[in-house]
Amino acid sequence: MPSTLRLPHRRVRLYFDRDKHEAGKLAEALRPFVAEPAEAVVVIGGDGTMLRAIRHHWTDGLPFFGLNTGHLGFLLNDPTDDHFWERDLRRYRLPLMDVQTICPRQKVKREVAFNDCWVERETGQTAWIEVCVNGVVRMEKVVADGMLIATAAGSTSYARAMGATPLPFNAPLLTLAASNVLLPAFWRPAVLPIDTVIRLRNLDPVKRPWRCFIDGIAQGPVAEMTARASDTAAVELLFAPEYDPVAKLAVTQFPEK
3-state DSSP call for residue 23? Predict the structure, then answer.
């Protein structure tokens, strides 16, 4: 369950989409409240802007409050809520994923992800993927365009487009999904406990190379990717009660009358 938080001192740090006029205009309106030590990072833009803000500032230990000037804005609040410090905000603490990749030359790289990480074919050849879960090979060969590992927060994004069921924002679960699966026939996305370690290995990196993305950021070619929930890395997101993501999810899963 979320806790509550109020920002009584009205000291914030701004992170906004500088390419969008509306985001810049709202940032100017909030600039008088920019001060250190900040109580929160106010993010102005779309969900992608929030992901970039988390990537750059999660180590600062500040909560994030988003104002939506983009499209869906699942991670954000209404942009007209410019007096949010006067309200009790719902605070969710969510673990980040620890993602390790190995490039074809065996160089190891580690990153964190809030939403998801995925591999996809880099050429016209389908990807051949070995799936290992907690050290056990569960699928010896998946033939598909790619595979994705998502947190519960990321389950409403690309994972949903791959046929996965959206999960409650703070559910202690990971989703494994794939795009355009040829084999195994009729395989459906899997939902796994948050402490699961998932490894994807390229069975033919020379003929069927992959490229990797973490929260939408290109990581280049990889031969292997392993993801797990981090034991130490986490972020806090703030929401006005009417923009609680759990309530948003309930609305999106039922058709309008």
Answer: helix
Q: Read off the pTM.
A: 0.91
3-state secondary structure of 239: strand
Query: Which stretches within the chain are classed as H helix?
Result: 21-30, 47-57, 158-161, 245-252
The string of pLDDT tens digits covering residues 50-93 is 999 999 999 999 999 999 997 777 899 988 766 788 889 999 99
Task: Give the other-Cβ count within 10 Å of 48's Cβ.
Answer: 15
Q: Choose the catalytic residue: 47, 98, 116, 215.
A: 47
Determine whether 47 is an active site residue: yes
Distances (CA, A) of 51 to 37, 235, 243: 22, 11, 18
Q: Could you report the per-residue pLDDT of 117-158, keeping only the tens digit for each?
A: 999 999 999 999 999 999 999 999 999 999 999 999 999 888
**Cα four-point dihedral sign 131, 137, 139, 141:** positive
* pLDDT value for 169: 85
In angstroms, the CA 14 to CA 67 distance is 11
- Name all domains of the chain by residue range, CATH numbers in brackets: 3-87 (3.40.50.10330), 96-231 (2.60.200.30)
What distance in Å separates the CA atoms of residue 123 and residue 207, rounded to the nearest whole number? Answer: 9
User: Is residue 77 within 8 Å of residue 63, measured between CB atoms?
Assistant: no
Backbone φ, ψ for residue 98 (5° rounding): -90, 115
Q: How far apart are the first and last CA of the chain?
A: 29
- DSSP code of residue 154: G
Please name the residue that has the structure tokens 């009729």: 186
Amino acid 215 reads: D
Residues facing 175 on adjacent strands: 150, 191
